[in-house]
Amino acid sequence: MVSAPSFLRLLNRLALPVAAALTLSACAAKPPASDPEAVRAFEEINDPLEPWNRAMLQLDQGLDTVIFDPSLAVYKTVVPQPGRQGVTNFIRNFRTPVTLVNDIFQGEGQRAGITMGRFVINSTVGLLGLFDVAKHLDMPYHGEDFGQTLAVWGVDEGPYLYVPILGPSGGRDITGYAFDQLVLDPMAYDGQGGNPFLRTVAYFYGLAVDGKTRAASALDDLEASSIDYYAALRAAYRQNRAQAIRNGAPAPTPLLEDFDDFDDFDFDDFDFDGGGDPFTGLDGATDQPHEEIAAQ
Amino acid sequence: MKRSIFFSLLFMFSQSVAAEDAWRTNPTSFINHFAEVGIDDILSANINEADKTERFRNLFNEGFDIPAIGRFVLARNWRRANDTEKQAFIALFEDLIVYTWSRRFSIYDGQTIDVRGTTPDGETGTLVDSAIVDSNGESVSVQWRLRKREEGLRIVDVIVEGVSMAITYRQEYASVIRQRGGLNGLLAMLKQQVSALENS
Fold it and tell me: Which of A231, B25, B67, B187 has the most CB atoms around its CB within 10 Å?
């Protein structure tokens, strides 16, 4: 039972960030052109909507408190780990077209073959995808999405965006997500009777609960160890996406001088305050010394 | 005859001493050694939480080059800081990591580490690629960035699923320093965070 004061607190928690974002200017001020170092830092952070995004993170944390934390708690209590793994396997199998088409878009023939093989094996032997049998046959799962495809095609990541429920994203990745969900996800072709809207809501709710359950401990660690969770999450998201775009290959060595001959190294030659996406080798590797780019 | 036995024993002994010490300089053995000590003497050891935290602090100091990580994390602000500020930062940063990682000791559930290979990294360094595998067979990719120091190898960064600890802290602290108007703001917030974690 929710008492009146705690209900008000919840309401506050949800409404305040939105109100704050609307009253404050939603854009981070761009530094004047007379300060080129600051302008460069601003462009590397690539988060012009930072005040808005911070409010959206706060809103999302409110939604977690009200909706998802209770859902996750029930889910974890009612369904033990093997069952939750089954749910994850089923969702991955159901969404095979998203991965398969993007494998093909990226010209990854071998990975497309693995995705196809997994679908055939797991849909049959794996009982409609509940069991990941293919994993044991040297066909491990990998995900792909249209955001990654756009990156491979050379599209910039665009401004950082924090989207409630979905989490960290960006101009490129949210576009990719829309394409995946509207065109590639089989749920987009749900033409059965009944209430398709309700089914879609239930489907996305299921995706969110599964995704949040799997991400919970990592995000919890990041939050506990950070004093600016928003900035830490932004940095972690971009690096994790960069790795996904590289299909898991290790990142190029960042600024090895930092770890090595530190005292001879002039930090003012670089400005990595905000980060951008320096390690993909795809999105403008602004932070890397040139010889490292050449060495790749 | 006796003599040859003596020499072969001596040879075996020297081999085993070499093997025992090889982990200090061989990247794969170094990570395996680190994981073994971590799992046997800390995670699955039958001791209380405070002892585990203390043992982890020792292992962390032995295995990581904390000052180098601190310098990397503070970046430009390191050069602008005075010695007192630098020492204060390193001490708080060590505490932060020790207490953050300690939180997870209690949920250790038999995960093992599987070293998959090494690649040269920088002029004298090595990147060790590994997977942490849980009982469901799900694995998390973890890479260890190692550097040669006089005392042996030291870890300067841990990269989990592409997310570098050092880079993430660096970008986060840059943001804090910008908002709080300087390093002292960061130090004050770190102090708060450390005591919150210590008491949790």
Answer: A231
Give the three-class secondary structure for A106: coil
Task: Calculate Rg over the CA atoms of chain A.
Answer: 22
Do B103 and A224 make contact, defined as CB atoms within 8 angstroms?
A: yes
B122 contacts A239? CB cut-off 8 A: no
A247 in Cβ contact with A148 (< 8 Å): no
Q: What's the gap in Å between the CA of B177 and the closest CA on chain A?
A: 10
Beta-bridge mates of residue A163: A167
Q: What DSSP string runs through B38-82?
A: IIIIIITSSS-HHHHHHHHHHHHHHHB-HHHHHHHHHTHHHHHS-
A239 neighbourhood in chain B, CB within 8 Å: 162-164, 167-168
- Each as own residue / partner, the long-range contacts of residues B3-9 (CB below 8 Å, 24 or more positions apart, any chain) are none
Nearest-Cα residue of chain B relative to residue A89: B138
Grouping H, G, I as helix, E, B as strand and the rest as coil, residue A191 is coil
Spatial distance between the Cα atoms of B169 and A121, rounded to a whole number of angstroms: 42
Residues 119-178 of B with CB under 8 A from A: 119, 121-125, 127, 129, 136-138, 141, 143, 145, 147, 156-157, 159-164, 167-176, 178
Q: A85 and chain B: CB distance < 8 Å anywhere?
A: yes
The 10s digit of each residue's pLDDT in B59-103 is 898 889 998 899 889 888 888 889 999 999 999 999 999 988 888
Domain B26-198 top-level CATH class: alpha beta
Q: What is the chain B residue with the closest CA to A86? A: B136
Which residues are paired to B64 by β-bridges?
Answer: B155
Q: Report pLDDT digits (tens) over A195-246.
A: 888 888 899 999 999 999 988 888 888 888 899 999 999 999 999 999 899 8
Q: Which residues contact A107 (CB under 8 A, 6 or more apart)?
A: none
Using CA atoms, how far apart are residues A17 and A161, in angstroms rounded to an integer? 15
Tokens 């300060």 label which residue? A35
Query: Which of B81-102 are b and which e, b meaning 16 or more Cβ less than 10 Å from the residue's Cβ?
Result: beeebbebbbebbbbbbbbbbb
pTM above 0.80, yes or no: no
